Fold MFS general substrate transporter.
Amino acid sequence: MEKQSILTGSLPSPSLTSSNERIVDRAAERRLVRKLDIRIIPVLWILYLCNFIDRANIGNAKIAGMEKELHLIGQRFNICVWVFNLGYLVAGIPCTILFKKYGPKSLCVMMLFWAITVIGCGLVRTWEQLVITRLLEGICESAFIAGAAYLIGAYYTTAEYLGRYVIFLTAGIIAGAVNGFISSLIAKMDGVSGYSAWRWIFIIEGILTIAVALACWFFVPPFPEHCTFLHGAEKELMLQRVKEGGHNAHDTITVKDVLHELSDWKIWAGVLMNLGVTENANSLSNFQPTILKGLGYTATSAQVHTIPVYLTGAAVSVICCLISERLNHRFAFYLLGFAILAAGLIIEVVHPPLAATRYAGMFLIACGAYIAMPISIIWVSINAGSGYKRAIAIATIINFGTAGAFVSSNVFLFKETPKFHTGFSTGLGLACMGAAMATVYFVGCWMINRRRDAGMASGRMEPVNEQSENEKLGWEHPDFRFVL
């Protein structure tokens, strides 16, 4: 057995005293982590699978007849896409705070509400009604990913967080593949009960989400302090580990606190890092079926050809993020994702004559975006501290970063089908912006760490080792060291 620091959400500080250390039985800890992996990640993975299917199915419905039936001429489809993210922006932070207050079971409540709006998308008669249902869907979903990300970070230490989160995130990636397959099957229901195929896509997937939400209510774990699936020494060990993670069961929040957290430049650097890659991920999920159809594939074939793109992106994302976690380094891997993403976007901008080459570009876009996206979220959230500080950071990065859909939905112009030169060029510019902000964030955090180390060494900065003070101050604590 060995000693381990309990300094929250940071690299261990050399100034810690023995009172801030705990004895760890590594074998017992490995058994505990395996139990957490089985109990927490699978249920959240299933919930996120449904979440992403419901969010992205509008792209599949478009080429299954919705565009013609609802007269989605000009930029009408794009409006239906970006208004979803307006709901994210309006409700994301308040709903995440409510999630933190009322607990993880609220994830299932969110699912029930957004599933109703998804079914509503299949019943609309005009494109204006579709805009309203998509806006409501965005509001209902706005805190789901942030809440799930917070819950994962509540049970796992800083060194374990990224790997678990990226495995959770693969549900969203694989959902793109599953969505194409399911949509190709549902398309055969065209005309059943007088409903077009695109309507059945929304209706069936919404009903499935309701069923999953009800079933998972009993399996979504509570916050660690209310954990019922661990007992005795295992629960005690888990609660000790929580102090090294990002959950604080006793903190409170005020409007002043929220505004203070939102004034931190590092959170907004994270927003821009995330926006730079999320815009391209959103473009892929919302417009890939249309792009592939423009390459000469039939509607059904276009749905099927999205599957290997998503599966490859998921595999590469998991491998790279696990290596990043093992090496305890984030910056270089974000840049790796950017480089792969940029290569794919350049292929699409150049628009070579061979359809196979442009299809290969889709693989690079998926791999690059899905490497950088989880790193941008977890890297900054780890460095935010714990409790509401982390919850606000995650919600801000995810919900404002998702604003990339505002961009993608308005630069993939109908008149440019299938080249979409403006859309891919804009995506390349935003990816470069994300890489630049990652560099600024890395340098800024490195300089703060160096200044604090120098202050400790010279005696100018007095260490404050009380755990309560550490939780309260977060990254402002003098012992805090940013993960790079």
Remarks:
- Strands lie at 2-5, 21-24.
- The two ends are 28 Å apart (CA to CA).
- Confidence is low (pLDDT under 50) at residues 1-20.
